[in-house]
Amino acid sequence: MSLGSVDVAPAARAGVSVQLLDLHRHYGPVHALDGLTLDIAPGELVALLGPSGCGKTTALRALGGLDDPDSGRIVVDGRDLTNVSANHRDMGVVFQAYSLFPNMTARENVGYGLRLRGVDAAERKRRVEELLELVGLARHGNHYPYQMSGGQQQRIALARALAIRPKVLLLDEPLSALDAKVRRQLREEIRRIQIAVGTTTLFVTHDQEEALAMGDRVGVMSAGRLEQIAPPAELYDRPATAFVAEFVGLTNRIAGVARDGMVELLGQRVPLLEGSAASGPVTALVRPEAVKLTPEEGAAAHVLAVSFLGSVCRVQVQLPGGELIGGQMAAADVTGLIPGAAVRVSVLPAPVFAVAAGEAPRA
């Protein structure tokens, strides 16, 4: 599936800015969008991430004109599109279901939007061949959807969306119907193509790894609101809310005491992130890779299980009080960490988010 040999042409047009301004959308008693405001820079890929029902797909549909917000504004390239119909918004959409026309070849599917727009045959043929080459399927132009794999069909759907040179590309869970290996390959190809073409893109997914791997920025949504939007590394390392800390990645909930901008846990003092509970008993949300496990004869904690995950391993440890904690490290560093082994548990001095003791996890 590699596109390494494809000579990707420079962007046909510069990306445009997108603004969702204080969007509200109700479905009966459900408040699907609760004052959502989101700015997307020209050419940027923003991934919206969140659990089912958080409003991320509603936001995408509102931007695409497929659903009308109850209030708020949608501005694209400085133009208010709030009341403009979907077919006049100049947007390309790729859905989870490939939605290819079964009676059309790949070539005909890609050219469908161009034909509707009255593009002449010669220009249509040139553009279709360019897009088939771009998605690595130049030799499959005469194949019908049933003759192609799921990954190939989704690439044709992407080529069809890009063929019309949309101002904005909307990707609604486009990889969720594919197996894990194909998903990883295709997400890299989609990202490469998006960068090459330069189209401003909103990508909706429930898959954390997908969002972090693809987005220039990732927005985490909950109950119709945007909890935080930031570059992937910042979102992961410096969550702004407890929901983000617990929803994105894995976390250990470790009891501690907060004071003076620090939290005392496992006999150490660790800095607190902004927004944390400031004082008193807290639960610190600690990433597994921030947990340090050292084999030590006579230590009170002991290893329960080790899971091999390729280049890394996850180690589950039971603390003296019976609490369970998970660590993650390079597979080469697990020597001596076998079930039953006594270990000393410590935490790296990276800042952590903390919530008041007893506060239930939201994710």
List the secondary-structure elements in sequence, H or E. Answer: EEEHEEEHHHEHEHEEHHEEEEEEEEEE
Main sheet overview: 6 strands, mixed
Helical fraction: 10-25%
Number of strands: 20
Strand ordering within the main sheet? 6-7-8-3-9-10
Secondary-structure arrangement, i.e. CATH architecture of the largest domain: 3-Layer(aba) Sandwich
Extract low-pLDDT stretches. Answer: 1-13
Count of helix runs: 8
Beta-sheet strand percentage?
25-35%
Measured between the Cα atoms of the first and last residue, the distance is: 35 Å
Q: Overall 3D geometry?
A: globular
How many separate domains make up the residues? 2
Work out the radius of gyration: 24 Å
User: CATH superfamily assignment of the largest domain?
Assistant: P-loop containing nucleotide triphosphate hydrolases
CATH topology of the largest domain: Rossmann fold
Give me the secondary-structure category.
alpha+beta
List the helices and strands and how they pair.
Blueprint lengths: L17 E10 L2 E11 L4 E5 L6 H9 L6 E6 L2 E2 L10 E4 L11 H11 L4 H14 L15 H14 L4 E5 L7 H18 L2 E6 L2 H7 L2 E6 L2 E6 L1 H6 L4 H6 L4 E8 L2 E4 L2 E4 L8 E7 L4 E5 L5 E8 L3 E7 L5 E7 L11 E6 L5 E4 L7
Parallel strand pairs: 3-8, 3-9, 6-7, 7-8
Antiparallel strand pairs: 1-2, 1-4, 4-5, 9-10, 11-12, 11-14, 12-13, 14-20, 15-19, 16-17, 16-19, 17-18
Describe the fold and architecture.
The chain is built from eight helices and 20 strands. It has helices at residues 56-64, 106-116, 121-134, 150-163, 180-197, 208-214, 232-237, 242-247, and strands spanning 18-27, 30-40, 45-49, 71-76, 79-80, 91-94, 168-172, 200-205, 217-222, 225-230, 252-259, 262-265, 268-271, 280-286, 291-295, 301-308, 312-318, 324-330, 342-347, 353-356. The strands form four sheets. The chain has a six-stranded mixed beta sheet, with helices on both faces. It has a five-stranded antiparallel beta sheet with strand order 13-12-11-14-20. A five-stranded antiparallel beta sheet has the order 15-19-16-17-18, with no helix packed on it.
